[in-house]
Amino acid sequence: MSGQTTDKNVPESQPQDEISHRRAKLDLAIRKGLNPWGGKYNVTSCAKEISEKCDDMAGQTVSVAGRLTAFRGHGKATFADLRDRTGRVQLHARVDVLGEQSYADFTDLLDLGDIVGIKGVVFRTKRGEPTVEVREWTMLSKCLRPLPEKWHGLTDVDLRYRQRYLDLIVNPEVQDTFVKRTRIISYIRKYLDERGFLEVQTPVLQSIAGGAHARPFITHHNALDIDMYMRIATELYLKRLLVGGLERVYEIGPNFRNEGIDTKHSPEFYMLEVYQAYADYNDMMDLVEEMISGCAMEVLGTTKLRAEGHEIDLTPPWKRLKVWDGITQLCGIRPEDLRDDQDAKAVVEKLQLKMDKAVTVGSVIDKLLDQYVEPSLIEPTFLMDYPVEISPLAKRIEDNPRMTYRFEPFVLTRELGNAFSELNDPIDQKERFIAQAREKALGDDEAHPYDEDFITALEYGMPPAGGLGIGIERLVMLLCGIDSIRDVMLFPMLRPKV
Length: 498
Known about the structure:
Blueprint: H1 15-31, H2 47-52, H3 54-57, E1 61-72, E2 77-84, E3 87-94, H4 95-98, H5 100-109, E4 115-124, E5 130-141, H6 157-162, H7 164-170, H8 172-193, E6 198-199, E7 205-206, E8 218-221, E9 226-230, H9 235-243, E10 248-256, E11 268-277, H10 281-300, E12 304-307, E13 310-313, E14 319-322, H11 323-331, H12 341-351, H13 361-373, E15 381-384, E16 396-397, E17 400-404, E18 406-411, E19 414-415, E20 417-421, H14 426-441, H15 452-459, E21 465-471, H16 472-480
Parallel strand pairs: 3-5, 6-10, 14-15
Antiparallel strand pairs: 1-2, 1-4, 2-3, 4-5, 7-9, 8-9, 10-11, 11-21, 12-13, 15-18, 16-17, 18-19, 18-20, 20-21
């Protein structure tokens, strides 16, 4: 909150006294015939408009509504700050304008945090501050608890997440983050709609959790008496739509993965998935470069970002790095060093890798990428051509069938998504599902399950296609310069408070 408070507040050391003090004001307002919870209020202007057009609006009567965030002065004149969804505007209340009773009620009955409606005249003070001179005021919602003081009262990160409404009230920059998040999603929709993509919705509850490597959440459908899974991806349903002739589709919605929580991962998150028939992963690279750089221009007004001591430019073209080139350059392991699981064990021993999964070719490649390659990807980069062992849904490279047409976009070492030239060969797909089943039998809970219905769909013929998934939170973190995924989620998942 801006400004200094006056004796309208009881000291912070006595929060219960402050609540009692506000309750007493509530009772007094009711006895005076005021409605402390208000009703519809006709708002004609907003704080931002008054601040930006003050000179043009000078002398005009306006009606504004919002939360009181500061009081300054007493006696026969009081300045206050009112904050609405667009920003802050100063109020000026005077006894000779409001009259003795209304002015006394304004100063005696209102507290910081109260939501009020104000009718008044726009002017600029001698100090140049855009201001509304209060002619009438209406109580719209009494705040019965003291707001945390901006610089000292809401430093507890856990409290900020649990009571996000307080975080939004006292930290305007938090509001700005979520406004940008909405603008980012709106831009993505506009970008795809203009290129002939159709937005669709697919099931959240699924009988098989497929489309990604992840451990699902399990629930039970009582009427059907079957276990079901919260979706971990939308991929397999969207590709069924390609089979059905919807050649360009996308979906933006929540996915759920029963995994750990850290600064980059949340069990519930939003994902964009896009599928385009008769395209390949090169088309998806073009789409990613153009869409993300355009999104930055739309939301930030620039494609250049400065974060973590680096200045990066999202303008296309982005760097392209093949997986095995990165592995060979950064840890000296070549494709011929890692052809089977016996080789994998030798690599683990040579590099003293700490594995949290069964030692296979796929799990070791994953570890090498995570430990050696990905931390080096600062500038916008497509890490491309992944081994088939860790890409069960991607099309094989024709002249190198151990590799696939797959890429992941990275910026500032962060993976933003995943994309393929989609596998549309039902025979190959069936074999890969069987190979994944073997991985699961070895203890990999995140291995892809066998999906017979999806194989059946492919047998009817799916056109060659490019597919893409982008994590919405990851993209917002990048464009807003935020390090923790919880700071771009309004209500992140937390352990229940006992």
